[in-house]
Amino acid sequence: MTTPVRDALPDGVPPLTGDVLAIRGGRPLRGRVDVKGAKNLATKAMVATLLGDTASTLRDVPAISDVAVVRSLLEVHGVRVTEGDEPGSLTFDPSDVESAHFEEIDAHAGASRIPILFCGPLLHRLGQAFIPDLGGCRIGDRPIDFHLDALRKFGATVEKLPSGIRLSTGGTRLHGANIHLPYPSVGATEQVLLTAVRAEGVTELRNAAIEPEIMDLIAVLQKMGAIISYEPNRVILIEGVEKLRGYDHRSIFDRNEAASWASAALATDGEIFVGGAKQQEMLTFLNVFRKAGGWFDIQEDGILFRREGELKPVVVETDVHPGFMTDWQQPLVVALTQAEGRSIVHETVYENRLGFTDALVKMGADIVVHPRGLQAGPRRVPRRDLEQAAVITGPTPLRGADIVVPDLRGGYSHVIAALTAEGESKVSGVDILNRGYEKFLAKLDALGADFDVLR
Ligand code: EPU
């Protein structure tokens, strides 16, 4: 590596755009990386700080741009954010929460999907909220109808404007509600939790998402004084309370990042120790990893991943927890291009999460995407209308190519494909990886990847 690596994001500063990586492949990734708190918990726990009367401390916060966006949005609403008492911890003081100016909020439009979760907390604190147009990865339509329907059930009025969404309590306290989600959406479940905890009365949420990050958010809210019980069959009961206090919490580890590095070890025939990874939250991933020819050793402070012999084809259906996460499939697909035989990946959560395979095909992979899924064969997950399936036939040597990163997990996969390929690739738009992978380039460097940053 010759060019200095730019991936430590100063607090609140959005990353530069347009970086290109020149990657020379064919070298196995070997070494150790450490994963911090989960993007998909830390950002939500940060929003929860708005609900407390006193300051909260979150530990193991990853230095990623999604965290920077949420921090900045909290700050424009009057939350004072300071460094905590150990590296990677942040303290949030919500004593002076206030309405923000439209321009300040609008500056965050398109930057992240998390702002939709500000609705309930801001309604409780201020009686009104304005949420800018959302961003996030372009992996499907990503509607917010479940969120808005739930907020209406709590008694909020919701007005859709060209620039965003305006919400109001109409001067009365939000009340508990009976909510049945049409699909166990992660975001909508969080929306209900963050709103119900301070609503008057009991909320019963059916068909809730039960991802480990949701359970960790429930733990955060319980520390704040909330009363939340979890019943069988995806039912969550929330008894609203009038006041909540701050919390002190260490975030659950980022199992998406851990699975990404595991697949990178598999694809490049390397060996990666992922510090901070834990077995319990990754059981489903580890089963598939093993079936695909992976070997792992669960240790006290992390998990060691590598291949065991030849890679083998697998059939995977993405699903809500405890199924195989949609975020795990893209890096795994890169490894499956090197497996002997035909693998199938059914994507059942998002309608556009196989777009990244175009670049792999350009690099020499044999991947056919069936836009309406595959009808035949026994299935565990019931078919959804938006389903797609990728049939990957291997092994196919990959060769370097010029590719553009489409989204967070797809982008990670492109970088891993380039590291697996013969020759040089130019991968552009890699700044998007800052959304979810802390110090990504430094980690690649530590694992022995051969690359330069071009500007
Ligand atoms: N959906 C609706 N209406 C809604 C909400 C969701 O139809 O109002 C649909 C979505 O279109 C999708 C499905 O429900 O087809 C699942 O969406 P969900 O709400 O569960 O996803 P999310 O909350 O938007 C989070 C993570 C994603 C992760 C999914 C699934 C965050 C910020 N994002 O998204 O993470 O893939 O859950 O586990 O927590 C990533 O980390 O790269 C990422 C995309």
Please tell me about this protein's structure.
The chain has two domains: 6-35 and 253-454, Enolpyruvate transferase domain (UDP-n-acetylglucosamine1-carboxyvinyl-transferase, Chain, Alpha-beta prism), CATH 3.65.10.10; 39-250, Enolpyruvate transferase domain (UDP-n-acetylglucosamine1-carboxyvinyl-transferase, Chain), CATH 3.65.10. It is built from 13 helices and 23 strands. The two termini are 14 Å apart. Strand 9, helix 6 and strand 10 (202-206) form a beta-alpha-beta unit. It has a four-stranded mixed sheet, with helices on one face. It is an alpha+beta fold and 455 residues long. Uridine-diphosphate-2(N-acetylglucosaminyl) butyric acid binds next to helix 1, helix 5, helix 6, helix 10 and helix 12.
Structural key phrases:
four-stranded mixed β-sheet; alpha+beta; single chain; binds uridine-diphosphate-2(N-acetylglucosaminyl) butyric acid; 28% helix
Can you summarize this structure?
By secondary structure, the chain is α+β, with helices and mostly antiparallel strands. The protein is built from 13 helices and 23 strands.
List the helices and strands and how they pair.
Elements: E1 20-24, E2 30-34, H1 39-48, E3 56-59, H2 65-76, E4 80-83, E5 90-93, H3 102-106, H4 119-126, E6 128-132, H5 145-153, E7 157-161, E8 164-168, E9 178-180, H6 186-196, E10 202-206, H7 212-223, E11 227-231, E12 235-239, E13 248-250, H8 255-268, E14 271-275, H9 283-291, E15 294-299, E16 302-307, E17 315-317, H10 326-336, E18 341-347, H11 357-362, E19 366-370, E20 388-394, E21 402-404, H12 408-420, E22 424-428, H13 440-446, E23 450-454
Parallel strand pairs: 2-14, 3-13, 9-10, 17-18, 21-22
Antiparallel strand pairs: 1-22, 1-23, 3-5, 4-5, 6-8, 7-8, 10-12, 11-12, 14-16, 15-16, 18-20, 19-20
The structure holds uridine-diphosphate-2(N-acetylglucosaminyl) butyric acid.
